[in-house]
Design brief:
Helix content of chain B: over 70%
CATH topology of chain A: NADH Oxidase
CATH architecture of chain A: 3-Layer(aba) Sandwich
Shape of chain A: globular
Number of strands of chain A: 4
Oligomer: heterodimer
Strand content of chain A: 15-25%
Number of strands of chain B: 0
Strand order of the largest sheet of chain A: 1-2-4-3
Structural class of chain B: mainly alpha
Number of helices of chain B: 4
Chain lengths: ~180, ~110
């Protein structure tokens, strides 16, 4: 089981080119159900998801999202509902909810990969334009799209790594010595 | 220059949306994403223009659609990226010449 989970983590890739093939409703629900289990600071759950399948709406979203190279059949927008943050008297500058966006995003992408779907995150979009296009409630701030679909053959390659890294390059054991 | 219309109003508005939103998001993104956004706009404009464009532009536009996505992936190799952009500059200059009164002059 743990080997399966680790393998899922290591084999997931950001996919920038997808086919038109539809994604089944149950699959989308599986991904949303997984997101519900993502860790959230203070167990506040300020994250809300907006699923967009309508082709016309997806097209408009792509027009204000220069970083969205995918023409994905399903877009899941991760939003922070700031009304929830305020209800719990958290400060609006609190960064915990942004971390929640990250845990939700990774959980959804791993869930998508586990059921044979491709995914890719997009943050390069105009928040203000997205608010208008999706008529979002005033307390929602759109933070990240997760594009969900089926990987296209001969798919656009991922951006080349700036340099080859291993976990050792990213990790440090124990206290740093004084300089 | 040819006076053929190569964009519909809706397509032009789409391109405006891309340019305006790119300008805004660039304020929050690394400087080297600037060329990426401009090239994305170039790729999309090329795709919009392709069907209605004349033979003077067609090959250049088709090349843009095929080559620009590959160029994005090489961003981490700055010299290769610069060199690919220089090549694109030479080609757009050639395309300009084909459309200009200097047609026939060697680029």
């Amino acid at each position: 089981m743990s080997e399966h989970v680790l393998n899922n983590i290591k084999t997931r890739r950001v996919v920038r080119q997808m086919t038109d093939e539809a994604v089944a409703r149950e699959q989308v629900e599986t991904i949303l159900e997984a997101a519900r289990w993502a860790p959230t600071g203070g167990n506040l759950r300020p994250i809300r998801y907006v699923v967009v399948e309508d082709p016309g709406t997806r097209r408009l979203i792509r027009l204000v999202a220069p970083g969205m190279f995918q023409k994905a059949p399903v877009l899941i927008l991760i939003c922070i509902d700031w009304a929830i943050i305020e209800q719990h008297r958290m400060t609006l500058s609190d960064r915990t909810s942004l971390i929640d966006v990250g845990t939700a995003a990774q959980t959804m992408m791993l869930a998508a990969h586990a059921i044979g779907l491709a995914s890719g995150p997009v943050t390069s979009f105009s928040k203000e334009a997205i608010k208008v296009i999706l008529n979002l409630p005033g307390s929602y701030s759109p933070e990240m799209f997760i594009c969900i679909g089926h990987k296209a053959e001969g798919t656009r390659a991922g951006m080349r790594a700036w340099k080859k890294i291993t976990w050792r390059d990213l990790s440090h054991w124990e206290r740093f010595e004084d300089k | 220059m040819s006076e053929n219309w190569v964009l519909t109003e809706a397509e032009a508005v789409e391109l405006l949306a891309l340019l305006i939103t790119s300008a805004r998001i660039q304020m929050d993104e690394p400087a080297h994403y600037g060329p990426l956004r401009l090239l994305t706009a170039t790729e999309r404009l090329s795709a919009m223009m392709l069907e209605r464009s004349s033979d003077k532009s067609k090959a250049f536009l088709q090349d843009n659609i095929e080559r620009i996505p590959e160029m994005h992936m090489a961003m981490s190799d700055v010299e290769t990226y610069k060199s690919a952009l220089d090549q694109l500059c030479r080609e757009v200059a050639g395309c300009l010449l084909r459309h200009s009164e200097l047609e026939g002059a060697s680029p």
